[in-house]
Amino acid sequence: MDTIESTVDRDDRTLTFVTVFEAPPERVWQVWEDPRQLERWWGPPTWPATFTRHEVEPGGESRYHMTGPDGEKAPGWWRTIAVDAPHRYEFEDGFSTDDGEPDTSMPSMHMVITLEADGPTTRMTVVASYASVDDLDKVLGMGMREGMTGALSQVPALLAA
Asked: In the CATH scheme, what is the code of domain 5-121+140-160?
């Protein structure tokens, strides 16, 4: 991976990450599609994820939790909107209550992942869109930018395995 760039656009209420991986899009797609690979990088390095459900198809749902260093669990959910393997994955992402249902008191985001071949590398762009600037500020205050950067930094080792 040559780069991890992140930008915040308050006018568009988005947080964008751009990374370049030394692998073709088909291989990078696998780290999103395969729940066993996904849980090896989704979440900051000290908060590994466990996916108990992962349906990569329109209308499909995913359930997971991240486990912190002290055993604290942070549950989340995804609802797949669109899939165009291996180039585009679009889903809603949010926090969950302890019973795994969406926590409507917390911000959710619309995520669009695009994978573009560039010679032997893949440029992956992750755009997280929020309903309001307050929602964007809340997740930034919770460390979303740093957490996602840490998560993405784990992908090259997974791709090389």
From this structure: 3.30.530.20
Domains of the chain: which residue ranges?
Answer: 5-121+140-160
pTM value is 0.93
Residue 157 has what pLDDT? 94
Q: Which amino acid would we find at residue 108?
A: S
d(C-alpha 99, C-alpha 47), whole Å: 19
Three-class DSSP category at 66 = strand
Residue 151 burial (CB < 10 Å; 0-12/13-18/19+)?
Answer: buried
The DSSP code sequence of 69-126 is TTS-EEEEEEEEEEEETTTEEEEEEEEB-TTSSB-TTS-EEEEEEEEEEETTEEEEEE
